[in-house]
Design a protein that fits this description.
alpha/beta; globular
Length: 99
């Protein structure tokens, strides 16, 4: 069975659901689900922000909401919180050369 793949980006994207992960301290990782209304105009009357959640809960919430709204998920993870069992992170090669 193929693993799920998620694009890693450095800043929120207007056309996708954004899963933002961060480490509060050595033992606590949190996540936040952000979805601008521009990503799902028929599904969201205004921007959505889940607020801070435990990282695993934020990941599950992002999957559920993205499936409901039928939008792509991108991941912002500057602290390396991502768990390998969630799937594979990749970077769009086209972005690497852009400034």
């Amino acid at each position: 069975m193929a693993r799920n793949r998620f694009e890693q980006v450095d800043e929120p994207q207007a056309d996708a659901l954004n899963l933002v992960l961060a480490r509060e301290d050595a033992d606590k990782a949190v996540g936040r689900v952000l979805c601008p209304s521009s990503a799902a105009p028929q599904g969201l009357p205004r921007n959505y922000d889940s607020g801070a959640l435990p990282a695993v809960e934020a990941f599950r919430s992002a999957i559920s909401l993205a499936n409901t709204l039928k939008v792509a998920i991108v991941v912002i993870d500057p602290d390396g919180v991502w768990h390998q069992e969630w799937g594979d992170l990749f970077r769009d090669e086209g972005e690497a050369g852009e400034a």
